[in-house]
Design a protein that fits this description.
135 residues, five-stranded mixed beta sheet, 3 helices, globular, disordered N terminus
Length: 135
């Protein structure tokens, strides 16, 4: 993983740049409207509304099946959002990200076979924090 400007896929530029930009625009609008301090579930609902308003395709609370040595597990993960069927979006409402938040997104990417995750913290001040994570 590198810095956002360094993230490439086979030398083609930033992975899913146009789609990620559209999703980030919706995230910024939710933060501009709601500010900081709500629970994650509030931001999830607002972001779902904003994505729908912008015509961005998404799935909410996506259940991810897990496999161990080709055997399906009973345990599952639940991703907050998957946009454009290719961008995993994990929402947080916490003071700051910690390594477990990044690990969670990386694990979700591995479980789904997706390559781009956006880790979002709505409690950041003075603006929302978005980290791009590429697998």
């Amino acid at each position: 993983m590198g810095k956002e400007g360094e993230l490439t896929q086979r030398g083609q530029g930033i992975l899913l740049a146009k789609e990620a930009y559209a999703v980030q625009g919706a995230i910024f609008e939710v933060y501009r409207t709601m500010g900081s301090g709500f629970l994650e579930a509030v931001y999830q609902e607002c972001l779902e509304q904003e994505l729908a308003l912008r015509g961005i395709p998404f799935q909410s609370q996506v259940e991810l099946d897990l496999v161990y040595k080709e055997v399906p597990l009973r345990q599952t993960y639940r991703a907050d959002l998957v946009c454009y069927s290719s961008i995993l979006v994990e929402l947080k409402a916490c003071r700051t990200f910690d390594p477990s938040h990044r690990a969670q997104v990386i694990n979700y990417l591995r479980a789904t076979g997706l390559h781009l995750g956006l880790l979002v913290n709505f409690w950041s001040v003075p603006k929302v924090t978005i980290e791009r994570l590429v697998l």
